[in-house]
């Protein structure tokens, strides 16, 4: 599979930032810039190792970028939340993902592909719902977060729930808020109607419950991430639980050390550690993640493998974490991971229910509400670019 011959970018400041940050490389990029829906223009950017030139527009395309269905090409949008990046694919015409897990691995490759932590597919609804979701990690594996299902909340809004409630809900909300007329989103654009009909404060129904992303004045999105799952077999982990079957501050042997771990599922499994028993306070910046991460991920105690968060507590409301994601390795952010970390910190008596969690990509605000037992996450999500790749 060759790398994309063309990319498309919206006329927004992220777009300008993206263009400015394109690194020179051999070959050429055709950038198709489009604005306010219908009028798509096609200036060409030839980029080589030493030069960049822009031709005059060649033609006006009447169809939206997302309506293009040339065979052999995959059209996508790339989003990120604090650097946790995903390729979003409009897969609404088939229950079969448009790319195989093997192709997903290639697309996610940061040198030979688009580069991402995973691929998300927006798919037709099942069981009476309008849409369903699937996700492939960058190693081609498929987390439980797949198949979260959204349906039409009322006649006027049509949504699907982004992959992991976290990143995807934030992306949906951000796309709606920032540019509902730009046809930017694979997620919410209704090709046959040519319009977007989303209401502020919309709700999303999912297999995991009702999701209500809210856009705040500062542009960040607050998402109800649902209730944490603590029963060991449901996480899943084979570590012995306490009387409620929760695994809190249990001992796990990894790499010759006894680590204290708490296990939490936010729909996907997380193993959280504040350090090894014999060690001083964990200095997360000193960790060799690529050495230790896989040993947690593939540990016998985690039958479905696990995401792992290494955490340092600065105070009872300020935590810092690094994450080794199942199927993706060290990532810059992980929303479900940050939620699981605050749940673990509360269960271990280390933190209050509202915390700022610093991740390599930036901070997330997490609250585990006592009243409803739900975890609420507040953070950003941004579109990076739109593009096509030959498959
Ligand atoms: N690697 C995860 C799935 C992706 C989670 C996402 N990065 C997040 O922000 O939660 C898994 O396999 O569970």
Molecular structure report:
- It contains 5 helices and 23 strands.
- With 391 residues, it is of the alpha+beta class.
- The chain has 2 domains: 72-172 and 187-226 and 379-390, Diaminopimelate Epimerase, Chain A, domain 1; 232-373, Diaminopimelate Epimerase, Chain A, domain 1 (Roll), CATH 3.10.310.10.
- The model is unreliable at 1-66 and 146-211 (pLDDT under 50).
- Bound molecules: the ligand N[C@@H](CCC[C@H](N)C(=O)O)C(=O)O.
- Ligand LBFN2T5F is lined by residues 84, 117-118, 137, 143, 145, 164, 166-167, 268, 307, 325-328, 334-337.
- One of its GO terms (molecular function) is diaminopimelate epimerase activity.
- One of its GO terms (biological process) is lysine biosynthetic process via diaminopimelate.
- One of its GO terms (cellular component) is cytosol.
SSE layout and pairings?
Layout: E1 6-10, H1 13-21, E2 30-34, E3 45-47, E4 52-54, E5 73-81, E6 84-90, H2 101-108, E7 118-124, E8 131-137, E9 149-150, H3 165-178, E10 204-206, E11 209-211, E12 214-215, E13 221-224, E14 250-254, E15 257-265, E16 269-276, H4 289-297, E17 307-315, E18 318-325, E19 329-331, H5 335-347, E20 354-359, E21 362-368, E22 375-379, E23 382-390
Parallel strand pairs: 1-2, 6-7, 16-17, 18-20
Antiparallel strand pairs: 1-23, 3-4, 5-6, 5-23, 7-8, 8-9, 10-11, 12-13, 13-22, 14-15, 15-16, 17-18, 18-19, 20-21, 21-22
Organism: Tetracentron sinense
Family: Belongs to the diaminopimelate epimerase family.
GO molecular function: diaminopimelate epimerase activity
